[in-house]
Amino acid sequence: MLQGKKTFLRPLEPDDIPIYHKWYNDQNVNYWANAAWPLSTMLSEEDIEERFFTPNKDCGRYIILNEEQEPIGTIGYREVNIPARSAVLFIIIGERDYWSRGYGTDALKVLINYLFYQWNFHRLSLDLWDGNLRALKAYEKLGFKVEGRLREARFVLGEYHDAILMGLLRDEYVQHHPPHPPETV
């Protein structure tokens, strides 16, 4: 289990399927996470098990736990490129009581530290839709830079929106977040 200041990350377990089902069928969660409501809110528990719980060597998916070790979201990486040492990150805070309270930023920092310092990744990227300014602010706080836009790539509630592409290089991150050993208890 990986630990941050406010969050813990642990691998998925079969018992997580019902909470995933809840999050992926919550229109507010999906609206902010990927602007896909209602398209991705029609998943059954069997669909979720097949999509998210089938082992995939190019994807790592974790549950985000709060201080009491209760599930509040999911985070991970996909599209691993071994020669380039790069991957694409994703995160969803599924429990709305934890929005805008720093839990997503903390969980991202934990995963970024793991990928840069333990796995020696060189580059991490992610994308979001231009209406999710809360996510944009969190990503910039961690050092991600806007690298481009896909014009009108997302269709949200009857309107087209841009997708924002962001990237973070290891050297840039290390300047502001140097590695440190875990704290002893």
Could you describe the 3D structure shown?
By secondary structure, the protein is α+β, with helices and mostly antiparallel strands. The chain contains six helices and eight strands. The chain has an eight-stranded mixed β-sheet with strand order 1-2-3-4-5-6-8-7, with helices on both faces. Strand 3 and strand 4 (71-81) form a beta hairpin. GO terms for molecular function: acyltransferase activity, transferring groups other than amino-acyl groups. InterPro entries: Acyl_CoA_acyltransferase (IPR016181), GNAT_dom (IPR000182). Pfam families: Acetyltransf_3. Residues 7-171 form the N-acetyltransferase domain.
What is the fold named in CATH at topology level?
Aminopeptidase
Structural class: alpha+beta
- The CATH C-level name is Alpha Beta
Query: What is Rg?
Result: 16 Å
- Between the first and last Cα atoms, what is the distance in angstroms? 16 Å
How many individual helices?
6
Rough outline = globular
